[in-house]
User: What shape does this take?
Amino acid sequence: MSEVELESALLVPVPEAESYVSHHRFRYDSVALRGVPAHITVVFPFIPPPAMTDEAVDAVRHVLTRFSAFRFRLTKLERFPEGAVYLAPEPAEPFVRLTTELVDRFPAYPAYGGAYADVIPHLTVAQLPEVPTLDEFSDIRRSLPIQCEAREILLMVENEDHQWDMRSRFALDGAGRT
Assistant: This one.
């Protein structure tokens, strides 16, 4: 039997959405139960934790110095064809740019393993295809839009117990912008 490789991810935490989505995430998104906050994924999967070096963390920090905090709104509840239910951010472009810049720096780690041609930023609410209809999420829909601000990127790593821990925080303070 082979060991399951541990994973890591770069994500934008969205604490403003937590109270609206946590009930559904804890029910329908297993990573919520394993310590991952409400978020918009920037790069997943990223460098496996055993291979994560201080140099790689510094390289992420260097890329992110070009980015400042930005405001966005979660405006609509959508569903991917595979069944995942998500909230779409507007504007989406800053998230796409974050992903593009990081994947350019770390080409061995394309977003979602390169499974999709386009980056579609989203905050996952449910990952189970058997969720009957979007009607089950009417409480979230009534709360939209949710005003948010992307202030930081978290590097989260999966541990041996398959829980997720924060390895590093990167402020979006534009320190490297010219």
